[in-house]
Amino acid sequence: MPGSLRDFEAKWSRRHDPHCFSGVWRFHDLLPFAPVEQCTTVGEGQTLLLPSEGVAEYAGLRPDRLRLQYEGMNPSGSFKDNGMSAAFTHARMVGATRAACASTGNTSASLALYCSVTRLMKAVIFIGSGKISYGKLSQALDYGALTVQIDGDFDDAMARVKEVSKQLGIYLVNSVNPFRLEGQKTIMYRVLEGLGWEVPDWIVVPGGNLGNSSAFGKAFHELHELGLIDRIPRLAVINAAGANTLYQLVEKQGLRWNDGKLDAPAVGRYYDKMDAEGIRADTLASAIEINRPVNLNKCLRALQWCDGVVREVTDQQILDAKAQVGASGIGCEPASAASVAGAKLLISEGVIEPDQRVVCILTGHQLKDPTATVAYHGSDREQFDKVLGSRGVTEAPFANRAVVVANDLDEIVKVVVGK
Ligand code: F0G
C-alpha cells in the first residue's frame, strides 16, 4: 500500500505498461482483488479534470472554484468503462464466457466494447423500448452485442436480466455487481490527482442506479481509513425531477443509512405507492430514467460517510446547464448536466458557498444523445415541442441557432461578417 497518494505519480513515467496507462489500474493497490497482470484494460480512465470559468459563473461560484471531471473521454464515451474494466476482470477470473446487463445505454455500450475489443466474452444486453438514445444504441449494435429490446422500461429490463442471468448462468455486470463499484472508485482518485491530491469541498454527481455515488463514498471512506486523506468531501447526488426516488426517500421521507439496517418496509411502501399511482420515471435525461435504484442502500451509506445531500432538478434546468457546459467547450449528455444544474441549485440555496471548491462529474460524452441537443438549439418549433416540450421544457435561453441562408455567395458573406 502506498505511503501517500503522491506515490501513484511514479506510474506516470511508465505509460508503455498498459496497467500504468490505465486510469483505473494505476490505482491497483486500492482495488487489489485480482493480480494486476490479469486485469483487463482497453485504455480506460484517460480523463481530465477541467476548470471552467463560464460554468462556474453560471452556477454562481467564484470563477476558479469549479472543476468538471470529464468522464466522456473514456473509450466508450462514459464513466462506465471504469467499472467495466473491473467487472470484466472478475468475469474472466471466474471463467465467464457471456456477460449481460440491463441498460439505459451506457453500460451496454461499455460492455459491448470490452467484449468486442478483447474477444473474451459475448455481450448480452437488455434495453427498454424507445428508452435509449441513438448514440448509445448504435454503439451496442456496432460492437456486435446481442441486443434484446424489452417491451418496457429500464426497471423492467433490469428485473428480466437478473432472471435470465440466473437461469442461464450468465455473468451480470450491472452495478449490483460490487466489482463495478471498485472500478468506479478510481474516478475519485483521478479527481484528487487533478487537484494535486487536495480534497475538494464538494463532489456533485447525477444519481440514477446510484453506483457512482456509492463508489465515491467508499473511495473516500477507505482513503480516510488508510490515512491517505485527512478529510472527506461532501457529496451531492442529483436526481432528475422525473426520476426522483432517492430525493423523495432521503429528503422528503428522511430515509437514512442507519448502520445498514435499511427501513425496507418504508422503501417498499414508496414503491407500492409509485405502482398504485402509475408513476414511472420520465425524464429527457434518459441515462438516469430509473424508478428503483439498485444501489439505494450503498448510496445511503455514502451519504452518511460524506455528509451528503440529495436534490432534484427539472429537465429545463438540466438542458440549460447542458448548454452552458457545451458552450464551455466540453459538452456532455443530458444526465451528466444534472450535476451542474444541481450545483447551481445548491449554491442558490446557500448549501454550497461560492468560494468552496466544487467538482461536478460529467458522466457521459456530448455525442451520446444528439437528439436533445439539436432540438434545444434548433429553430424547428415542432421538433422542440415533440422532443422537449413533452418533458416540460418550454424555452431554450442558451440556444445557438443555425442560420439558414440561400446558396448565394453575397448572402453567405453577409451572414459570416454578421450583417
Ligand atoms: N450518467 C450517465 C451518463 C449514465 O449513463 C448513468 C447510468 C448515470 C449518470 C447514473 O449513474 O447509476 O451510477 O447513479 N447509466 C446506467 C446505464 C443506468 O445503464 O448506462 P449511477
Description of the molecule:
- The mean pLDDT is 96.
- It contains 16 helices and ten strands.
- The longest helix is centred in the middle third of the chain and has 17 residues, at 178-194.
- Helix 4 (106-118) links the parallel strand 3 and strand 4.
- Helix 3 (80-93) crosses helix 7 and helix 7 (178-194) crosses helix 8 (211-225).
- The protein has helices at 18-21, 53-59, 80-93, 106-118, 134-142, 154-168, 178-194, 211-225, 245-252, 264-276, 296-305, 315-327, 334-348, 370-377, 381-387, 409-417, and strands spanning 48-51, 66-70, 98-103, 122-128, 146-150, 171-172, 202-206, 234-240, 309-313, 358-362.
- The chain has a six-stranded mixed sheet, sandwiched between helices. It has a four-stranded parallel sheet with strand order 5-4-3-6, sandwiched between helices.
- The chain is of the alpha/beta class.
- Bound molecules: ligand F0G.
- Ligand F0G binds at residues 78, 80, 103-107, 175, 206-212, 287-288, 333, 335-336, 363-364.
